[in-house]
Structure formats: C-alpha cells, structure tokens
Amino acid sequence: MGDATTIAVSRDGAVLHLTLNRPEVRNAMSLAMVGEIAEALRSAEGDGQTRVIVLRGAGGNFSAGADLKDMAGARARLAQDPAAVIKVNAAFGELCNAFADSGLAIVAVLEGAVMGGGFGLSCVADVAIAGESTVFRLPETSLGVLPAQIAPFLVERLGYSEAKRIAVTGCRLDAREAHAIRLVHEVHPAADLEAAVARTIRDILNCAPGALAATKALVRKARWTRPADLVQEAAEAFSRAALGPEGIEGMGAFLQKRKATWSPP
Question: What is the pLDDT of residue 250?
C-alpha cells in the first residue's frame, strides 16, 4: 500500500490505521479510494500481523459519501457499457461486505460529516465511536437515488423500522441521536475521543485473535439461524477453540493469574 493516493496507512503493532485522505472533498469516496481500501483490507487479512483495523477520515470529517464525479463518469460511459452505473455502485457494496465478513476487528472513528457511503461504513464496523460534534446524514432519497448498498447494513445495525424511517426522510442525526438509536456505540467530546479509541483497541487486543474471528462468524450466522439449529455447530466451534492453542493458553493464563500471550503488556 505504499503507492496509495486516496488513503493514508500506518501501523502501530497489531493495529492498522486506515485514514480516508481526501480532506478537500470531505473524504468523498471515489472508485480509486474504494479500491485502495479494499486492497488494504485484503492485505491486512493475509499479513498474519494485523488484529485491528481503525477507520477514520482526515481533516475533521469521516466521509461525505460517494464521489459524484464517478457517477457522472459512469453515465457518460453508458453507450459503451450499459452496466457502468451498476459496476460503480456494486464496487462499494463489495467493500461493505468485505468489512462485514472480515475476521479482523473493525473500529470506526467518526467525526464531522458521516454521509451516504460513510454512513454505510460506520454500520459495518464492529465498534463505532463518534465525536460529539459528528453529524450523520443519509441524503440519497433527497438526491433521487437509493441507499442501495447501505440498506442491508442499516437494517442490521438499526432494525427494520428505524432503518426505514432514516432512509425515507433523508435523516439528519447528531451524535447523541445516533447513539440513542445505536447507530454508534460511544460518543465522546473531542478531547476524550483518542483515549476512548485507545481503550477500545486495548480491550480488543486482550481477546484471542482466532476466538474473536470465530465469534464474529458465529454471531453473524446467528442473525438468520434459530438458536436450536446452532447448538451442534456452536459446540463444535467451542470445542475447537477450547482444545486449540488459544484456549489452552487463555485458560492457563487465567488459572495462573497472568496475561495471555496475545495481550498487550
């Protein structure tokens, strides 16, 4: 990712920081940015080092959503490629699904404008932490289009009724309102935001990485499966973990009153 032009990438041990880096357009997500974020995620999932990805935006905003220049360009190509608009929209949907399915822990740090696609990314994060001045908007219907790729994740995060209300009103929410409907998990004053992020990262790093990934997969499946139908699968997953190196180390560390090997010092 050394040649990335739309995101900034930095590492702090097992934590990879991905910063949307087009502050001049409030980090509007171009196709190039979507591609670079997706590549960074794939790289992190395969590097054997990354355990947490922190998503944030440069210049005081998370993201103002999709870059409308890409949509204009897609319309201009319709004569040559009738599916051009579909491809642009689907690229962002594939990115959202990649984050939602990732075995890594995803933390979104939300500030300033969180709109459209930025709203969607906040919904796929495992933990969403907002500054108290953050403003959330889903303006698609007011622009004559649909929050197409975001819709499934709105329902997942907010439930059907609240997701529908937000989508049909082009809703504007402040951070406290977003917290009240559980769009975000925590809200903090600007001065306290970084400490909250650091605490969350530390909590995640105290969890075994394999167990965390397996838990995310099981919880995701549980959304659509009756508890009775998961009993055997969950028991088998538990057995693999308990008898594996993480389970042996974790329970041994607990009994010996010491930190597990994966925990930060």
Answer: 98
Which of the following CATH numbers is that of domain 7-204: 3.30.70.20, 3.40.50.2300, 3.90.226.10, 3.40.50.20? 3.90.226.10
pLDDT of the residue at 51: 98
Reduce the DSSP state of residue 235 to 3 states and report it: helix
Its pTM stands at 0.95
Please write the tens of the pLDDT for every residue from 176-223.
Answer: 999 999 999 999 999 999 999 999 999 999 999 999 999 999 999 999
d(CA 157, CA 183): 6
Tell me which residue of 2, 72, 58, 4 sits closest to 26, measured CA to CA. Answer: 58
**Tens digits of per-residue pLDDT, 129-145?**
999 999 999 999 998 99
Q: How far is residue 213's CA from residue 185's CA, in Å, rounded to a whole number?
A: 20
Spatial separation of the C-alpha atoms in residues 168 and 139, rounded to whole Å:
9
Contact (CB, 8 A) for 175 and 211: no
Supply φ then ψ for residue 119, to 5 degrees.
-60, -45
Are the C-beta atoms of 85 and 75 separated by less than 8 Å?
yes
Say how far apart CA 199 and CA 172 lie, in whole Å.
29
In the chain, domain spans: 7-204, 208-255
What DSSP designation does 202 have?
H
pLDDT of residue 156: 95
